Amino acid sequence: MYDAFRPFLVSHLVLTNETFILQEMQDDYFNQNYDYYWLNIAKLGQALFLIILGFGLLIITNLIIFILYSCSSKQSKFGKWIGYQLSQFKFNAYIRYYMLAYFDLTFFSVMKLVEGNDSTQARRIATMASYVIFTLSVVIPTFLMFIVCKRFEVMKIKAAKASFNTLVLKIDKQSRWRLVQPGYFFFRRLLTAVLLSMPIDNTFIFLQYVFILMSSHAYVLYLVAIKPY
């Protein structure tokens, strides 16, 4: 499943030089830096559309597997295999997809809020969507970490942690401090998304380097001190 989603980590779903949606924004850039990399708002908007499309395909795949499971013999080899695949959609497949799309969703929403141009109806809708996405970027990771911490005692049981394996994969569940790992995953990406959206002419642009470097060092110190794996 991780290998299937790996292109997210490299391309962020900016897959072509051509844009097929928001073509009126092909000459619009958040700032000069994005012009250097040919990343206009249309390309970023298309990437966001592909993320939403990917989520739709994930739901369709879930429905297909559910139908196959309903029509197959539960005791057959195929039935057991398809049953295991179906169990991954509760909730591992959705959590993994969200984790891979998390930085892009947060970054796009913050960039739109920083840009602040609401001159057209489409831009106003984009701003409202950005508020919703950014709010969810804070609420969903908090909710997931609350569930993991609340279920800490039963997480040591294989069957009990199965639905959240993608969050606690290979983590030693003998200490609550080790469960900080997935929370830090989201926090670091939220911090990076906010800092990278800082305008290039901002007086405090140097904080991008300082805080991102500090967050990386803090993560290394955490790994050394806690040894979560």
Count of DSSP helices?
Answer: 10
Overall domain count: 1
Structural class by helix and strand composition: mainly alpha
User: In sequence order, what are the helices and strands, one letter per element?
Assistant: HHHHHHHHHH
Choose one word for the global shape: flat
Over all CA atoms, what is the radius of gyration?
A: 20 Å
Number of DSSP E strands: 0
β-strand amount: under 5%
Q: Helix proportion of residues, in percent?
A: 55-70%
Q: Mean pLDDT, rounded to whole units?
A: 81
List segments where confidence is low: pLDDT < 50 over at least 5 consecutive residues: none
**Main sheet?**
none
Q: Roughly how many Å apart are the termini? A: 21 Å
Explain what you see.
With about 230 residues, the protein is mainly α. The chain has one domain. About 65% of the residues lie in helices and about 0% in strands. The chain has 10 helices and no strands. The protein has helices spanning about 1-5, 5-10, 30-35, 40-70, 75-85, 90-115, 120-150, 160, 180-195, 205-225. Helix 4 runs antiparallel to helix 5, helix 4 runs antiparallel to helix 6 and helix 6 packs across helix 7. The mean pLDDT is about 80.
Layout of helices and strands:
Blueprint: H1 2-5, H2 7-11, H3 32-36, H4 41-71, H5 77-87, H6 92-115, H7 121-150, H8 158-161, H9 180-196, H10 207-226
